[in-house]
Amino acid sequence: MEKGLDRDDREALAMFADELSAHRYLERLLWPDGVCCPRCGSTARVGKLDGASTRLGTYKCYSCRKPFSLLHGTMMRSSHVPAHKWLQAVYLTDGGTKPMRSYHLHRILNVSLKTASSMMRRIAEAADSLSPASTEKAPLPVALTPSLPARPARAAFSATVASVAMAALGTFLRFAEPILSL
Fold this sequence. Notes:
The protein is mostly helical. Helix content is about 50%, strand content about 5%.
């Protein structure tokens, strides 16, 4: 039996109906004061790459000459699943706290069952690592651990991503309520 979506869920999922709206939401959430390079911490010399063959959400730091993505350092990194489907999955699972079968997620998001299972695993790992008991002991959540050697600017960026992920995963409904009431 397939889980049905009520009207509120449909409106919330429509908020992330396309990739552009999801990226705009994540930009406001991750960088409220402007884009910051995760490698060197520069905010002045960062530009958005808008070429025809460039992926959405790609930036380049002209201080360290390295490109980076909006999803860099999050649980959505190195995933081929679009960001709007990730945000819809986070909403549907209440940030990993609401039990949901991957079959239902696969049917709702129109992704393969294997992809839905992988998304559920990553969301659950991020939610478990962000619980109050584990954040006191662990320096960074497992899902947000940087893959490159830690540098001061990168550590600050990772801490920012961790705090933003806590807000996004733990209290996602609070973010959606003002938008749903419009």
